[in-house]
Amino acid sequence: MTITASRPVTEVRAARAARRRWWRGKWPLAALLAVLSVLTVSPFVAMFIVALSPAGRPTVPVRWPDSLTLDNIARVLESSGFVTWTVNSLIYAVISVVIILLTSSMAGYAFAKKRFPGREAMFWTFLATMMVPFQATLIPTFVLVNSLDGVDTFWGLIVPTLANSQAVFLMRQFILGLPDELFDAAKVDGASEWRVYWTIVVPLTRPILATLGVFVFLWHWNDFLWPLVVGQSDATRTLTVGLTTLRTEELQLSVLMSSAAVSVVPCLVVFFLLQRYLVNSIAMTGLK
Amino acid sequence: MRQRLRDPVTGLLFVLPVLVLFLIFRIFPSLGAAGMSLTNWNIGGDWEFIGADNYARLLDDVNFWLSLRVTLVYVAIYVPLTLLVALGTALLLNQVVFMRGLFRGMLFLPYVTSFVLAGIIWRWIYEFDGLINGLLAKADLGPVAFLEQSAVILPALAVVSVWKGFGYSMLILLAGLKSIPSSYLEAATVDGASAWQRFRRITLPLLKPTIFFVVVIETISAFQTFDTVYVMTGGGPARATYTLIFGIYDHGFRSFDFGYAATWGMVLFAIVLIVSLVQRRFLDRGNT
């Protein structure tokens, strides 16, 4: 925040004093916040403890075990289904991220900076489809994909989820804010449209592309209903769907929790690397 | 150069990939859902136009009314609960300076994971020999059969969804709180207003649009509850968690009664549409 930096020294001192005064009055609030935060994280902590404890029914309440072991995790990683599901989830999420970023930034550029017949009508139609929940069109989408022999294939899993109106909308809003002169200048220099897109639009939209990429990755990695109905065998089953098939078998809790723990690792990595960034982008754009 | 910016062909070409995806996988299935609900389409792909028969069947279907009631009760529990938790934590985060980033991160953490993972962890927490009952036993209380009792199951599911999702609304509300000019609150403090009066008379009215936005998105997401139901209860016990989406899934992918499942989908669409229209009305009123 540049505003704070340019504030006079006396004001900074006053703020510091205010902070000290504040601490005397409000430490119960901080304590309450700390308790709530610990409660929120505790189910994860319990999950990891059980995952890392020797097999068998865990002691309740969950205690730190006398010895930690990676046996459960190893058992999970050895089962072939689990590895296949993880790879499938990665394919589903990564391909979706790449294609959605590419197509939505292209469309966002056109909607923001190009004039062509039907632009407004098209854009409002895109926005209107946001109001139709995916679950309401689940059956016709499935029947369509089924009639094209897409059930239990990767394209059937991925392609129907690529029509993401939120991504198009976000990209358009962001590119609208870029000055027209940039594009005009490139045109005067004789750059082709594709070159303008690649050397001006893509680099300048990098922050929003990164944010959107993270969210698309999380949405697809965590997605459930569509992969459930389309991925019907291990060949295309994703991790979320695979985890629900584990439950039905007689399985030791420690193995189940290990599977769950391994499945959440990519989300946690994304979260710890980009926490501040995610938080700011939600506050600014209302990304869901 | 203005002329070239208007070049209609490049604009259309850049929109084309998104346009094709949308026509095939969003717009066509949306229209298809309406059409399909007027047929008796089934797994074999055979169908006959049966007019409004599915809708008549819906009105006579005990399970439909039960499902609608289950969903409405769930919404009525989930939305106030999540608003309360999100607003409470947002207010605390707005007040507390001490380790704010850490607490915010801990509270937001579950949001980046999946409902499937939340369902798996919380199933164990709620189980008869699970975490909570273990704690209750230590205190010579319980056990409580959370997952087997109709009266307890919907609040139990709502708690899982609140835990998983409140971080998002919390961040939106926090952004809203930060946009309230601190001079208003300082002036009120000088005038001798108590903390409660400042909250009631300044914070709450200025935060109203944000609160309303949060209520709308959380209401819509509550109507779409499926993953946790699938993982934790399978619609039971005795259909106590048979939500609308579970009904769509059940009729579509267990009975393969696609036409009738599409009719259930239309009900979901109607509900989301009504909520969105109410939102638009309120927002328009707020602007004028």
From TrEMBL, chain A:
It is a multi-pass membrane protein. The keyword Transport applies. Residues 86-274 form the ABC transmembrane type-1 domain. It holds the Pfam family BPD_transp_1. The chain crosses the membrane at residues 29-52, 90-111, 123-148, 154-175, 196-221, 253-274. The keyword Cell membrane applies. Keywords: Cell membrane, Membrane, Sugar transport, Transmembrane, Transmembrane helix, Transport. This is Multiple sugar transport system permease protein. The lineage of its organism: Bacteria, Bacillati, Actinomycetota, Actinomycetes, Streptosporangiales.
UniProtKB/TrEMBL annotation, chain B:
The keyword Transmembrane applies. Its main location: membrane. It is found in: Cell membrane. Residues 68-279 form the ABC transmembrane type-1 domain. The chain crosses the membrane at residues 12-31, 72-93, 105-125, 152-175, 206-226, 258-278. Keywords: Cell membrane, Membrane, Sugar transport, Transmembrane, Transmembrane helix, Transport. It is a multi-pass membrane protein. The keyword Transmembrane applies. Belongs to the binding-protein-dependent transport system permease family. This is Multiple sugar transport system permease protein. It comes from Nonomuraea angiospora. The lineage of its organism: Bacteria, Bacillati, Actinomycetota, Actinomycetes, Streptosporangiales.
